[in-house]
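Q: What does the assembled structure look like for these inputs?
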Amino acid sequence: MASLSDLSLKNRLFMATYRYRALDPVPFTRPSKPLRQARVALVTTGGVHLPSQVPFDDELKGGDASFREIPADVDVATLGIAHKSDAFDQSGFRADRNLGFPLERLREMAAHGEIGSLNGRALSFMGSITAPGRLVKETAPAAAALLAADGVDAAVLVPL
Amino acid sequence: MCHQTVGLIAGELERRGIATTSVTMLREVTRKVRTPRALAVPYALGCPLGKPGDPALQTRILRAAFALLDAPGPPPVLVDFTST
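A:
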């Protein structure tokens, strides 16, 4: 388990005084169908993007709350990674995108019938959002509306 | 901050009727954010699915995360991954 003590002093001081936004009450949806029949979507905060997409802006004050749509059949090795946080070692993620964006694993699970299907688009957000106002008001609801329109039953979210 | 972002996005998805599960390397942050469902993994930041080039481990972590969808609750659901 990683813990806050693994982080640099700068990051630790920031996180010690940061007031996290808490979900209260916690929104909670029971699965509407078994996993082997469910349409599943992948959401990452790894900041991955297609080479043709505008990369995220890691200079933006408070963080870049936008997201990118990634086709679920993409060759993950071709994806760019905009996340440049100094809080963690990125070498593993750069060597194997599945470490933070496990599309290939989910495609295998769909092929084996463990999940009903993989949604046609996965979503990629950026990490390092310290001021989540725009995320909460605009981009997260927009992402939820997109996946709901796709008929997604369940989503798996992966932070970096 | 990724962990807060994941919790807040999960909240919006749940509000739209999509059941969510997630992975966390920072249990204490996920507990504070009250992410609806999260699997706490014993790996470093940057390694939510365990190890690069280890598809068997990555799949086991995903299966354990999906298993939380059937947790009785109440939310938040925060469970430790055991690799054995």
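Chain B has a mean pLDDT of 96.
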